[in-house]
């Protein structure tokens, strides 16, 4: 962000949010999209393999839950990003590799 502020000659004392600076520069955040894409491709790889990593990512292991608010699971975030809405629909789509690749490509084009 600092380089955009420097290019647009925005002084450090100006109270502008990063979103506003991005809008002025006609730029969009792309790091989150890239991370989500890598997460989705890795998830497809792990889910088709079906070993220990599959159990960990789906959250099907025994033990007590921690106190307080539960953390957001990777599966929930990817399900909303891919537009499936439900984790079970996402897991079903992983089995078909071509469908999974198309879903990732469409989600990446649409953004976050």
From TrEMBL:
Keywords: Initiation factor, Protein biosynthesis. This is Eukaryotic translation initiation factor 3 subunit f. It comes from Plakobranchus ocellatus. It comes from the Eukaryota. GO terms for molecular function: translation initiation factor activity.
């Amino acid at each position: 962000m600092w380089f955009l502020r420097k290019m647009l000659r925005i002084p450090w004392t100006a109270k502008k949010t990063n979103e506003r600076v991005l809008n002025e520069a006609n730029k969009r955040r792309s790091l989150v999209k890239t991370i989500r894409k890598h997460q989705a491709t890795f998830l497809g790889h792990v889910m088709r393999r079906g070993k220990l990593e599959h159990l960990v990512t789906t959250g099907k292991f025994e033990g007590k839950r921690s106190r307080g608010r539960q953390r957001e699971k990777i599966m929930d975030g990817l399900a909303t990003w891919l537009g499936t809405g439900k984790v079970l629909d996402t897991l079903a789509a992983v089995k078909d590799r071509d469908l999974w690749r198309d879903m990732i490509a469409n989600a990446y084009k649409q953004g976050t």
